[in-house]
Amino acid sequence: MIRTNNIAFKTVRRYTSSKPDGILRYAKLTEKSYLKIHGPDTIKFLNGLVTSKLLPNFTKKNLTTVTEKSRAINLPFSLHDSNVGIYNDVGINDEFYISRFGQYTGFLNGRGKLITDSIIYPLFDKAPYPEFYLEFNKNIVHKMHTFLQHHKLLSKFKLNTEKLQTWDVSIGFPTVEEHDENPWVGNILNPMMSIQNPEDALSFINNVKTALFDGYEKNILGIYVERRTDPLIRQNGSMPLSLRLVTDDTIKSISSIYNEKTFPFKFDMKEVEPSFFRKQRLTYGITDGTQDFKSESLLPLELNFDKWHNAVSENKGCYVGQELTARTFSTGILRKRVVPVTLPNFKLLESNNDYFEIQAKNPIQGSDPNLAQSPFGQSKNSRKRPAGALVAHEGDVGLALLRTEYFQTAFGNNNKFYIHLNDTKTVEVHPQKPFWYSE
Questions:
Q1: Cα dihedral 280/284/289/295 (nearest 10)
Q2: pLDDT digits 0-9 by tens, 261-296
């Protein structure tokens, strides 16, 4: 057990097996860019733009009237006068917590469509005001800079472009039995969700940096723990933990700075292509930037933001694009969701940038009671309504925006789906049951 600043980082015990006890995979990402935002109004400003809840306010609107109920949690510290990290509503025992790890979130346009998802990284400096790095894909960072400046008005903060390096990292212990507790639950997930003061939050992430990258703590500028797969890690003792690291440009590889001394065994370490991690994410049904969807084409709930930890809030109050999101939460009506799919003959897809319509062999007719039926009946030549659309794919794994009325037959293998390219080319689409789905 290693101790730093009175917070423990537990090591894992060694298992006897022919497999390596530890596996580390990493990839350098070249398509990410960063904006640094800092100043006294930073958190209030971001809270009015992102889908996540960054302030301890509760606002519940009655969508049938103009009334609303509001309240605020009184914290023993200020979120505005110093660099304290990110507030999260629900942690261990359903209590709030403060974190210095990155937060997955989204930015919407005025119509409630997702401009882009993003990761907000709290800086580790003891600054007089909040400081964050905002992560975007390079193809949209200029648009987001303009978007933020457009909404600035009288808010007091500065916005700068930063040149940083980005890494996807996966660390796992394959010899741990699947039914055992995953070592990352007690070492990372539970501790980070139980800290309620900024000092301990900073001490904990510094402890993690030392345990994993001893001697290179100053080069690590941001850490995001992939929280969207929390349920899987809590169910599977050997599932790797996925991290996103932000470093300065002096770091040439993760294997050269990784601290194996934390663990009582050797690691199998290898650099892989970014597609390795993208394919892994798509398998779980999660996205990472505008490489996985077209900007302003989807709703955040269609991308399952309501299934991810603090990715979207239904009670934070007003923010850009929240009206449609709040209405969907209130009515419970969502006609499409993104699900993982496999594509056995994916090589027939010549483009990776288009949304391909997905048809069902057995289409469901008139299943939506909210849609009015034509009094003239259905034309024999009328075009079939698609069952969904292929949003993204990496090789034979992809994401499909599937109509929810098809879920039961799709996940029960009682229907077949395909993309019709032309008279001679058809791509099979096999929807996979998402880990969050329950009938």
A1: 140
A2: 898 888 999 999 999 999 999 999 999 999 999 999
CA distance 214 to 235: 30
How many angstroms separate the most distant Cα atoms in the chain? 75
Contacts of residue 117, Cβ cutoff 8 Å, sequence gap at least 6:
104, 105, 106, 107, 287, 288, 289, 303
Cβ count near 341 (within 10 Å)? 27
pTM to 2 decimals? Answer: 0.90
Domain ranges of the chain: 23-327, 335-431
Fold of the domain spanning 23-327: Alpha-Beta Plaits (3.30.70)
Sequence-separated (6 or more) residues with CB below 8 Å from residue 323? 112
Quick check: 85 and 198 in contact, CB under 8 A? yes
- Kindly list the distances between the CA atom of residue 131 and the CA atoms of 242, 302, 416, in Å, as whole numbers in the listed order: 24, 30, 50
* 383-415 residue pLDDT tens: 578 999 999 999 999 999 999 999 999 998 889
> Going by DSSP bridges, is the β-strand pair 22-29/267-271 parallel, antiparallel, or unpaired?
parallel
Beta bridge partners of 37: 132, 159
d(CA 161, CA 178): 43
**Edge-to-edge strand ranges of the sheet holding 32-38:** 103-108, 114-122, 131-137, 32-38, 158-162
Tokens representing 46?
């971001």
CA distance 29 to 6: 34
